[in-house]
Amino acid sequence: MALFRRRTEAAPEPEQSEPNPSPAGGPAKKDRPTPTRKEAEAARRQRVGRNLNSKEAKREATRRSREDRLRAMNEREATPEKVLLRDYVDSRFNIGEFVLPALVVILALTFLNTVFPFVTYITTVLMYVFLLVAVIDVFLMWRGFKKVLAERLPRASTRGLLMYGMNRCIQIRRFRIPPPRVKRGEGY
To answer: Tell me: the pLDDT tens digits for 75-90?
Structure first.
């Protein structure tokens, strides 16, 4: 019954020969000790994500959101019809880009109602005339653009382009997104 007894005599050491290569596809021999649970969890957390405080997390979320919006906008804005419309609108003089500044001035003039009562009437009429001229300008822009679109991209659809062009016309030039590629009066 030498099953659980210690051997007192030393077994001869086998001679060191070439290490047996691991069988094909089998696990390779480890070169370091197994990490503790604490070390393994720390390494996993580091791989999964950084620990961010609330300010850093908000900043990171804002950055990702901005990148996603810009990527989506660039995909949406890259159609040839929209590129042509943007260049067409940016190359012409638009009355609509002065609507917002003019409305601010007209609103400021209406505050003079107590001093000059007739100023309110005049500014209201001017506001409606200015808006009518801006609408006529958009109509002329659309008519001209449809001719250019028919020449350059005959099979292109005009769906959604009228509102896109109108929004582009009434935006102040320096605040347009994407920014204008052509200057006023240049070819497009």
So the answer is: 888 889 999 999 999 9
